[in-house]
């Protein structure tokens, strides 16, 4: 009794199979309907699994506070690590010069290949002593030129050379104490009788090629040549041996004494024999014609327009702008915290159109062929920064909220009368882009699937009914029967 009442509410009453009729048209429509259902179901599933985001622009609410981190890795094939300096300034008046705490330098050759481990320069003090100021200076050092430089450098076990420029303020201050020191050393170590050390000088305005060959970028530069080479090995890399101490006569004489302290008197004779036999110390290598520098690290700046400047800087040297070449290759220049591989994957998954803009300058080279036409070239980069914040559906705290900075870059080469530099002008935007991942409702997905299956089934049934009835009418007409 109860079962019969339940059967009365059956929506799907069954018709005996022998009372139904199959047709080729119905079979064709059934196949088409099944394929349509599968196709539409696949499309709906793909839409359900696809990433769905909303984008809005809001005021910057960075979690980093008022500071912004800048990571960089830049190679300069013609700028020496000896004078390379990283400076930071902004519109609020902040000026930080020669940052070293978070910056590392590596000597490289002209092909950007490292020539050793990290560059650790000795202390370069702001020289306070320059010796006596006398009205008349007696030349005690030997003038050197391209014609006699090699012969002198191989003739004496130690040759200390002052590379100077007459227009340089620091060179003129050094001149009296240098010449007096040369006279004292000549008296103590006679070049003819002793010959262990000789002091010389090179005017770089007259011997530009010689100074360029020894990569002289700042004046005055005091180089120490031992057996014809000024190259020394320091912590795994080869560099020019230079004097960085005080420049008064007493300090210079004391330094010269230390250079010859461990050299026997017979060394001068041995040096002459080596020169006559044309033997070369295998431990000595010729210095590179142009020593370069790779500068990497990071700086923290305020979130206001400012600049990162890389240039040749020294508190006790002058520079010839025409001899400074700031051509460079950018390996990395990015803003904000570094992203882990998982975080970067999430960024690419949600915002594939942003790929490549977080490090826009990476892989770019800015080379200037140094010469009279292209001398004194400053290279400037203008960077406009926009922060992008992603709110994902991940449960992990690390991946819940992601932050990244994208920027556009415009570069230009500017001719200047001053010492060439590389400037990275940055301008953070006060707004940020907020990208939020929106979840898709599973109930909405099920509803759409049911609508697809039911709709296709119903439409196919209607089409089959129309087609079947049309065929019956055509057959009746052909048999001459009344409709």
Domain module count: 3
Q: Tally the beta strands.
A: 21
| DSSP summary: helix tally | 10
Strand content: 25-35%
Rounded to an integer in angstroms, the radius of gyration calculated over CA atoms is 40 Å
Structure classification: alpha+beta
Query: What portion of residues is helical?
Result: 25-40%
TL;DR of this structure?
The protein has 483 residues and is α+β, with helices and mostly antiparallel strands. It folds into 3 domains: 15-50 and 441-478, no CATH class; 55-110 and 292-437, no CATH class; 142-277, Glutaredoxin (3-Layer(aba) Sandwich).
Descriptive account of the structure:
- The chain has helices at 2-7, 24-49, 149-155, 169-188, 208-213, 249-260, 267-277, 341-350, 397-400, 442-478; strands spanning 53-59, 67-76, 84-90, 95-96, 103-108, 114-118, 142-143, 158-164, 197-203, 218-219, 221-226, 231-234, 237-240, 292-302, 306-312, 318-319, 328-335, 365-366, 377-391, 401-415, 421-437.
- It is of the alpha+beta class and 483 residues long.
- The protein has three domains: 15-50 and 441-478, no CATH class; 55-110 and 292-437, no CATH class; 142-277, Glutaredoxin, CATH 3.40.30.
- The strands form five sheets. Strands 1, 3, 4, 15, 19, 20 and 21 form a seven-stranded mixed beta sheet that branches. A six-stranded antiparallel beta sheet has the order 6-5-14-2-17-18, with no helix packed on it.
- Helix 2 (24-49) runs antiparallel to helix 10 (442-478) and helix 4 packs across helix 6.
- The model is unreliable at 278-290 (pLDDT under 50).
């Amino acid at each position: 009794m109860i079962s019969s009442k339940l059967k009365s509410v059956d929506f799907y009453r069954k018709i005996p199979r022998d009372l139904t009729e199959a047709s080729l048209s119905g079979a064709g429509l059934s196949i088409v309907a099944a394929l349509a259902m599968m196709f539409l179901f696949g499309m709906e599933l793909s839409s359900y699994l696809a990433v769905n985001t909303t984008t809005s622009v809001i005021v910057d609410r960075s979690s980093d506070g008022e500071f912004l981190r800048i990571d960089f890795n830049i190679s300069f094939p013609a700028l020496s690590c000896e004078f390379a300096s990283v400076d930071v300034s902004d519109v609020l008046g902040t000026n930080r010069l020669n940052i070293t705490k978070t910056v590392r330098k590596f000597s490289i050759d002209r092909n950007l290949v490292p020539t050793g481990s990290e560059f650790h320069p000795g202390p370069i003090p702001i020289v306070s002593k320059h010796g006596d100021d006398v009205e008349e200076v007696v030349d005690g050092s030997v003038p050197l030129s391209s014609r006699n430089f090699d012969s002198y450098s191989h003739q004496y076990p130690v040759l200390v050379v002052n590379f100077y420029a007459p227009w340089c303020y620091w060179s003129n201050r050094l001149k009296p104490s240098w010449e007096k020191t040369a006279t004292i050393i000549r008296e103590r170590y006679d070049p003819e009788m002793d010959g262990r050390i000789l002091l010389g000088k090179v005017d770089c305005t007259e011997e530009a090629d010689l100074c360029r060959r020894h990569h002289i970028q700042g004046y005055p530069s005091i180089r120490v040549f031992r057996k014809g080479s000024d190259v020394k090995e320091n912590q795994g890399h080869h560099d020019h041996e230079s004097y960085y101490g005080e420049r008064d006569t007493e300090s210079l004489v004391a330094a010269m004494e230390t250079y010859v302290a461990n050299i026997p008197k017979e060394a001068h004779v041995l040096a002459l024999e080596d020169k006559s036999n044309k033997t070369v110390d295998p431990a000595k290598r010729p210095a590179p014609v142009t020593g370069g520098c790779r500068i990497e690290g990071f700086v923290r700046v305020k979130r206001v327009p400012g600049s990162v400047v890389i240039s040749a800087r020294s508190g006790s040297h002058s520079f010839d702008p025409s001899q400074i070449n700031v051509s460079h290759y950018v390996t990395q220049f990015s803003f904000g915290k570094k992203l882990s591989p998982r975080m970067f994957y999430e960024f690419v998954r949600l915002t594939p159109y942003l790929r490549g803009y977080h490090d826009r300058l990476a892989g770019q080279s800015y080379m200037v062929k140094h010469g009279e036409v292209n001398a004194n070239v400053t290279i400037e980069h203008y960077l406009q920064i926009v922060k992008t914040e992603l709110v994902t559906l991940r449960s992990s705290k690390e991946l819940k909220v992601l932050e990244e900075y994208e920027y556009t870059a415009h570069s230009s080469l500017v001719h200047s009368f001053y010492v060439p530099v590389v400037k990275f002008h940055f301008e953070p935007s006060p707004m940020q882009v907020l990208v939020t991942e929106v979840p898709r409702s599973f109930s909405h997905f099920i509803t759409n699937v049911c609508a697809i299956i039911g709709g296709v089934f119903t439409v196919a049934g209607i089409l089959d009914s129309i087609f079947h009835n049309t065929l019956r009418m055509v057959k009746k007409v052909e048999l001459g029967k009344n409709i």
